[in-house]
Task: structure prediction
Amino acid sequence: MAVPTDIKYSVTSIAVTAVALLTLWRVLWLLADGTTLSTDEAQYWFWGQEFAFGAYSKPPLIGWLIRAASEVAGQSVFGVRVAAPLLHGATALIVLVLARRLTTPAVAAFAALSYLTMPAVALGSVLITTDTPLLFFAAAALLFQHRLAASGKGWLIVALGLAVGLGFMAKYAMIYVVLGMIAAAVASVDWRIPWRAALPAALIAFAVLLPNLLWIASFRFVTFQHIASDAEWQGVRIYPMQALRYLAEQLAVMGPVLFLAWLAGLVRLRRMPRPHIALYLVSVLPLLVVLVQALTSRALANWGVTFLLAGAIAAAVVLQKNRILMGLSLVIGLSVSLALPMVMAFGTGWRMPDGRLFLRRYLGQPDVIEWAVAEAVTGGATAIVAEDRDLLSGLGWAARSAGIAVNAPPGDGPPRHHWDLLFRLDPEKARGPVYVLAEAGTALANICPNATDQIRTAGPGFAEGRRFALRRIDDTTCLKETPDE
Result:
């Protein structure tokens, strides 16, 4: 039965209002956030301090995004993270528009709200990660593909190419989305773009990505080497429990009701209309690729996160006649979404039964970092040296207004992170005292044995209880070689 026009608009208006209110809730609570930047967040901020077309382990868009947001909102935790809830809110609206093209307004509204309240999106809205811009541009690419399949308007070709290219500049996992888009085009004419439109869109996407590819090539493809090593593939070995664990983790990524509904739809896929089969292909491919990876090496729960976009719509279609499960899903998702920002504000002192801080991953080691930077400033240092990525990212953030360089130790070994690649200390050019921060007992902590040491035990955070040495070095020639571990 056709839904009256006035009800169509009211359902959509309610969804848009709900998206705006939940986004506002997240932004306002971000002002009260009591955590510090995680290692990855501080690293991404550091990348954004120079407009480079690449970085050690990821494409550069996340750094550019954080740089733009913090220039507007301030060099603060809020300024670094504020783009996350805003982008997820915008992505939910794109899901709403795409879903309205595929199903009823009521189902589309449920899909958009389901996306915005998924546990993974709730967590991604209080932090800043590469998944956030990836999901935004992936959603835009899917919408532009579906619109372009129905209309040959030239601006849609440009928009699709830019969305795909910028998706790759956010995270190389955009390849999963592209594979899904191709599969959808094969399965349904509603998703099929003529070659005269697909080819120029592909060329535009390639042109957007090309500067990053050239940057990677200029550094001997270090980024791709890191991605390969991160997967820890060691030949043909089968780890069925890892694959099962990865699937079970999707209950927490998508939400239990939504993921089980999505699985139920997958079982009866053959009975669905072709446009919805195509939607399932878009969502299943990222999961399938990462599931194979989990089966043969390792995979993190969020590696197939792009399945959430089409998956939200597919699950909404399956659940559309079951109001009880729809309501339960929204209650679970909304509870997590409302509570999580408050946990980030008030939960910094909460401890697990084993004594570890509940939010230790997002508390860093600020007392050690701030102590080291303060000592270096007082001592007139020109640089602080560390070799651990956790320390380097924290030092970069803490020293942002101190006028002190943050460097990795000298050396010619393969780079382990961004600082090894681009910011190794040159002892010949170092002027004034240099401070070295390292965990006590490590090789770097014992470099230049005639230097002066200070020792500090880390306070609350993920490094709590570990001892760190801060060594002042006036003659930097002893830094030419780092002793072996």
The two ends are 73 Å apart (CA to CA).
